[in-house]
Amino acid sequence: MTTWLITGCSTRLGRSLAEAVLAAGHNAIVTARDVSKVKDLAVQYPKTAYAAALNVTDKAQVADVVGETEKRFGSIDVLVNNAGYGYRAAVEEGDEQEVADLFATNFFGTVSMIKAVLPGMRARRSGTILNISSIAGRLAAPGSGYYSASKFAVGGMSDALRKELAPLGIRVTIVEPGAFRTDFAGRSLQQSKMKIDDYAATAGPRRKENDKTHGTQPGDPRRAAAALLELVSRSELPARLLLGSDAVKIVGNEVDGQRQEIDAWKELSVSSDFASEGSNN
Question: What global pTM score does this model have?
Fold first, then answer.
């Protein structure tokens, strides 16, 4: 039996993962900003589930939840940073405060959770951290520049974190889902109030009122939850795990395109080096 702390459990992916973890017989701290949305899990699993209100931007609340978890279950074996939301805007349209709020949740909230659990994990020389990112952490679509920036930040931080923690017996994986039938494109998607006509053909189609993908995404949250349970059970974890056939295709094409561009511009790239002795350049 392991103890999982999962953020953002009120809907779909977080909820599905919490249900899978508990059904498998593990302990789970299921959290949401509105704790009433997850209290039923604590009723259903009174010995292994603890429901807690948690806004990851509130550092005092983060500390309280981690402290209560350790008090009840002794340790946190798996941290899943799932809390987050989307934001659509052309870069010029983005509101400064809205973007700051986005980073406060998607990036700095993730960092706060990691910092809160690491002392215990370091003391035990064990633990697993899953940072839920997105394929938007590998490439950016028009209208999603700020959201992608928040997920690129999670990816960069997680890459360094994994290398820092590996010698201490603590594992870190970035999880990069494609499109899943969650509330991401519905309730959890925000956007700028400003609309600039010049971006109607690029960022415009991705505004909520024009996006028709909600409810038709290929990814199944319950199967994603099963995949994450399987992932944590493995002796070795990847640095990054794509979730969904669309994620594999889209990111695969992006990586191939990047390799081709590197090769195409290699001559100009290497021309910036200091010339070696005897060179005519």
Answer: 0.93
